[in-house]
Design goal:
The protein is an all-alpha fold and 168 residues long. The chain has a single domain, classed as Arp2/3 complex 21 kDa subunit ARPC3 (Orthogonal Bundle), CATH 1.10.1760. 81% of the residues lie in helices and 0% in strands. It contains 7 helices and no strands. Helix 2 runs antiparallel to helix 3 and helix 2 packs parallel to helix 7. The radius of gyration is 17 Å and the shape is globular.
Length: 168
């Protein structure tokens, strides 16, 4: 890599990774609560650390530009980078089963995390919002678990290969 161009390369990589997160979300948006974003954040953050977290912010901004800004957007702004930080703490594990559990647990907690802002308006509404979404959270959990179990190893290996090629 040419000296002095490292920051530009990192910025470009963050932009591309954020766009990939967005493309993954849009491409599966016809399936309720089945998504690749969670697993991709695991792969990006495990291999690139802070760049994976920064890609979350790009993803959240692209999502807001498409779907609009609402209360949900503030939750996205907190939830996805926080998930990336959790991944960073657990990044040493290369076990698909560990990541399937982490991704599934995140899917199961997603509705509860989205109910948090509503507590400030009405705790009863926040609780009912969370409870009514539990069936979707269960689907989210199962989908994330299976996707991570099946795709973690090949996606992580592909990411490592791309990074090796970039370093040459």
């Amino acid at each position: 890599m040419v000296k002095g161009r490292g920051a530009a390369v990192r910025a470009a990589r963050i932009a591309v990774l954020g766009a990939l997160l967005y493309a993954a979300q849009v491409s599966l948006s016809f399936l309720p609560n089945i998504e690749l974003v969670t697993l991709l954040i695991v792969v990006f953050t495990r291999n690139l650390g802070k760049e994976g977290t920064a890609a979350c912010f790009v993803y959240v901004c692209l999502t807001a530009l498409t779907w609009g800004f609402g209360i949900w957007w503030f939750t996205y702004l907190a939830v996805w980078p926080l998930f990336s930080l959790l991944v960073y703490v657990l990044r040493k594990s290369g076990s698909p089963f560990v990541w399937a559990i982490v991704d599934g647990g995140f899917g199961l907690c997603f509705g509860a995390l989205f109910a948090i802002p509503y507590i400030f308006f009405s705790p009863a509404y926040a609780f009912s919002y969370w409870i009514s979404g539990i069936p979707f959270d269960i689907v989210h959990c199962a989908g994330n678990f299976m996707i991570a179990l099946l795709l973690f190893k090949p996606l992580d290996a592909a990411m490592k290969k791309v990074l090796r090629l970039q370093r040459k």
